[in-house]
Amino acid sequence: MSEKRAPGDHVYATMRIILACATGILQFGLCLHPLLAQEYRHLWLAVAAFIALACVTAVCCGWVLRRKPLPVALVVAGTAVVLAASLCATAAIAPDRRFQASDWSLGLVGWHLLLLLLDRVRVLITVLAAHLMTSMGLFLSAGVPDRAVLGAAGATAFGAVNVQLAVVVITRVLHRQTHVAMAVAEEQDRLVTRVLTAQQWERGQRILFADQLGSTLSLLAGLADGELDPRDSDTQRRCALAATQLRRLFAENDDVPDPLVHEVTACVDAAERRGVDVSFAISGAAVPVPSQARHELTGPVVAALSAARSRARVSMLRTDEEVRIAVVADACADLVVESTGRVGVEYGVYGEYLRLEARWRKQRS
């Protein structure tokens, strides 16, 4: 599995690839000629510094080209090597040639430090300042130069650092804009998900209403045509079932803090309107139950209450792991309610009473 990285990491990874290429081109394209000119007091020291800087770039490329962040140990060791190489390269040339073309390490070192410390801006600024102060100290150690030489040295130092600081600013701006763009994209994704969820829920509700109204309309048509006798007990039970199902269906669309209790209360209210004496007891705190699971949990309650003749008792038990709804009613014994994929149903007949229990267990992630 690929490791998920923050949006800013991609910006730093891309900028480091650019910096690795720029550092290599600058070192071998612009700094190699002054090194070969042999205008040094200690040529071997300058060559060693040049090789050390090239090795730092080569080692960093092992992580940069794979777009992986540099390890902390590599950053610390690489920074120490770069600063030591800069000191050696500066000490290798004559004092009167410092801050001139032969002082190739003055500007080159800053690019190596950028490669190492791009995502650590405060440390980068501190190390760059220490590098310039050390170079300026070595420059002034040979004696106080005249104004023209001092001005030229200042212009050289400013020109070397100015571009590098511009790279830091550009990287920070890109990093910030990337975060903003990713936040906007995530918000758009959330909105799209909400819209799709709402559309799916609306389609589901239409299907439920169509199914429920279809069965109700056939019942009403049978009563209107005289095919069904309103005095027949089976017809009365079908009417009670249809009324309870419709009342439950309407309750599913209500925005309430505890939807499950609200839907069971709607079923109880429909039974009480028929004259059934219903007691409803709740135990336990509210737990989130998916809408489909609520529909399957209340299905047995609808069936039992619609079949009840005069009295019924509904009890709900809720825990962190499961929800149980039990119904005891003086209903007919031939009532059959099957278990579903999410909800298990158990029922039994005790004399003239029917006991039914629906159980839903929370799925563990």
Automatic annotation (TrEMBL):
Keywords for this entry?
Answer: Membrane, Transmembrane, Transmembrane helix
User: Which residue spans traverse the membrane?
Assistant: 12-36, 42-65, 72-95, 101-118, 123-142, 148-170
Under which name does UniProt file this protein?
Answer: Histidine kinase
